[in-house]
Predict the 3D structure of the following.
Amino acid sequence: MKKTAVYPGTFDPITNGHLDVIRRGAEIFDNLIVLVAIRKEKHTLFNLEERLELVKCATKDIPNVQVATLDKLLVEYLKENKIRFVLRGLRAVSDFDYEFQMALTNSTLYPEMETVFVMSSRKYIFLSSSLVREIASYEGDVSGFVPGCVIKKLKKKVIR
Ligand code: COA
């Protein structure tokens, strides 16, 4: 049976660290759906359509990756689409508390689900979207941190 997983996140914007997790997840699972979350409670630099477009652009060369919107509880999406696996990346010990809390909450709401963690590659262990946004806001060089299509959009946003 084919195994499908989702990789949920805000992706404001998608970074090379996220992309590294996506590439590795795409090798583990037959299909990987990157879920771009709406996040009503979080002010984002890029709106939902922009974040979706950037994830699509960054992952277009990975054939078993699809991109979709997450506009509900993650467990509801999983149940509706009959998906059991959630992929998450762990960068450092500091990620663990948050990820542990989220994985346990989700599995309490939907016991059939399983969160699968991959460790971020050493190269991107320090990276975060907020760091990228901050560097871009000072017109710093983000080319080593984000995919090509994100660089252009970030520049436009910051100049505006
Ligand atoms: N490389 C680089 N950065 C990474 C990373 C990696 N491998 N893994 C995480 N990050 C960074 C992100 O850039 C982001 O940084 P920022 O806070 O500086 O912007 C931060 O870590 C967390 O981002 P992300 O992994 O995208 O997760 P999130 O916390 O934004 O997403 C959801 C959380 C969307 C998965 C979660 O809120 C959710 O499932 N929402 C749906 C509603 C729901 O079901 N809620 C109940 C959850 S129990």
Remarks:
- Residues 8-12, 15, 17-18, 21, 37, 70, 73-74, 89, 91, 102, 105-106, 120, 124, 127-130 surround coenzyme A (CB under 6 Å).
- The domain at 4-158 is CATH 3.40.50.620 (Rossmann fold).
